[in-house]
Amino acid sequence: MFQGNLQLKLGNFALDSGEFAFESSGVTVLFGRSGSGKSTLLRAMSGLDKQSHGELRFNDEVWQSGKKALPVEQRDIGFVFQTAALLPNKNVQGNLDFAIKRIPKHRQHGPSTQEIIERVGISHLLNRPVDNLSGGERQRVAIARALLTRPRLLMMDEPLSALDWRAKSELLLLIESVIADYQIPTLYITHAPIEVERLANRVVFMADGKITSIESLGDATSRIDSPLFTEEGPVSVLHGQLGDIDPDGLIAFQSRQQPGSDSAFTFWLNRTEHSNPHASGAQARLRVLARDVAIALHRPEGISMLNQIPATISQIEAEPPTQRQVVFLALADGQTLLAELSRRSVQRLGLAIGQTVFALVKTAALLDR
Ligand SMILES: Nc1ncnc2c1ncn2[C@@H]1O[C@H](COP(=O)(O)OP(=O)(O)OP(=O)(O)O)[C@@H](O)[C@H]1O
């Protein structure tokens, strides 16, 4: 658990977080416009900035009380920033050794150095001078260096923003799996909603140096004014698990099964060249744009669309300024799927809260694998 209330003044900018409390497990994303104070909050939480004051507790430890702060070295944090500050006159191994030498005794446990190097995919880079590494390779080294310090907590400040799309997508997969495998609580700053959808357990929204709200990812994508929505409009992120790839080349994405009961719904997805044939049983997230969801009052016949998911309307809201209607659909396992329709369609179908309908999903993309 993180709990506190932090202040930090940098030039003309004042961070004044307000009281906050959130679970530390999993990934907490700090999200807000440029200049809203995300990096400043992260610095204040890390102890990197001696000017911070206020209160901060991490689980049962006091990290900040008034001006008194636990030194950053005693907080056991692994840092990854936008660009990896590597020592230029050393090769990759030299950079890692530099970090390893500084690990305090009480942190010399957990995965071995060799395991981390392999896990992060840099075994072949160890003898390379750091100056000729690509941006993605540099970030891998930075991630390995952070993990080698056996952190209790990771702080990542826009670790992907300086990379091209291919490196971004590879690194996102790596970060996601490393955090899950090593179970390290992570504070993660990004501007990119897709990274939030993919990684976040919860989102801390910031504006003008303050925390404006702290929401689970599900809640953050279940309000039509969500700052996570871009010009694509509202998006739902559904959690589920993958089934086998069937002979027609379709992959099943199923709701999380409760012991002893059948899956509440199944989406059929097209297999792509990136689909992992061995992912059956893996947890996954599915991204569905509200504008790709249509509604039928009865299960349609003679229609090519495979994904016809029974659901109950829980809410209908007008999306300003377009007056498009966002229909909130409660799926059988309690998750929410959003559908964006014209006002005319909503009136023509006579849609109302509590009504049982079928969500027809044109396309949906797996976020995880
Ligand atoms: N050392 C500093 N001295 C003076 N002002 C600073 C300093 N560091 C940051 N600021 C200012 O504080 C404000 C908040 O910066 P911060 O980096 O925390 O925002 P951010 O939300 O992380 O933004 P971005 O997404 O662009 O990185 C900005 O206006 C910035 O110019």
Automatic annotation (TrEMBL):
PROSITE patterns: ABC_TRANSPORTER_1, ABC_TRANSPORTER_2, MOP. The keyword Chaperone does not apply. InterPro entries: AAA+_ATPase, ABC_transporter-like_ATP-bd, ABC_transporter-like_CS, Mo/tungstate-bd_C_term_dom, ModC_ABC_ATP-bd, Molybdenum_import_ModC, Mop_domain, P-loop_NTPase. Keywords: ATP-binding, Cell inner membrane, Cell membrane, Membrane, Molybdenum, Nucleotide-binding, Translocase, Transport. It comes from the Bacteria. Residues 302-369 form the Mop domain. One of its GO terms (molecular function) is ATP binding. Residues 1-233 form the ABC transporter domain. Signal peptide: none annotated. GO terms for cellular component: membrane. Coiled coil: none annotated. Pfam families: ABC_tran (PF00005), TOBE (PF03459). This is Molybdate ABC transporter, ATPase subunit.
